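Sample pair:
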Amino acid sequence: METLRRVWRNRYFWAVMDVALALILSLAILFSLRLILGVEHPLLVVSSGSMIPTLNIGDMIVVQTADPSQVNIGDVVVFRNPINPNEPPIVHRVISIDRNENGRVTRISTAGDRTRIVDRFSPWNASLLIGRVILRVPYFGNLYLFLHQWGDFNGGLIIIIIAAIVILIALTLFTDNKDRGEKSEGERKVGVRLAYIAAVNMLIISFMVFSLWGFVIISRETIILGMYRDLQLNKEKFGNANLSWGFMTYRIDCRIGDSVLMGVPTFSWFQLSLLILITFNGREVFDLLIRPQLKRSSLRPKESI
């Protein structure tokens, strides 16, 4: 009984619980996306450079089911490999659509934005269509590609998960028990708290700057770009590119002659970081300045009439 009580009070036990909750929540989100978006694999990772600069290697894309009749020229779509359906799906832009005498879409032709030349799969049967790309999340797929280089991706991922669980369990059972949330005397000092706040602010602001102007070359074709670097790459490729903002997203559209090459709505790490920065600092200001005042007010004896 004492062992169970010690484990229950141990902060590393709660770290294990947090990890388990995160895994359960991730699975719940994935299954929810499958139901909402109507595809078996709503999240895919771009692993080739055929769609540069619209989609970069390491981008994660969100795919929504689409009937062939809903597809328009210029849409970025995902379809099964017509040559080998067991291969990973292809993501390219629609450049032409063939219809039969009844107006039904029968065949679709696509091309990569890198060359804008019809690909070797086209025209392909419309029944191979999986869906349309509705969102791009930069950077998110690079970890997947890194692990995939091990050859046995599932094996490498399982090793990492097992190692993390073993370490957390060991810390839970063999460390001194302290109440969850208990802090040392030094951590309570205002100076240490301010240093912590400053460090977190520097980290978040640094990531915000990187999300706008960052530029990291991982390999010859794998490049991590900030938003404005991404805009510059589109300008260099197509000559005229425009940036538009949405809520938690942005989009880069390129004008080519009299036509517009529509970009894919892209998740904005800058906006998310800004939201986290405001929330974090608001909470810290409340804890440092407002909460002590409220506590003192509640402890102050009331005057009798």
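The longest strand covers residues 90-99.
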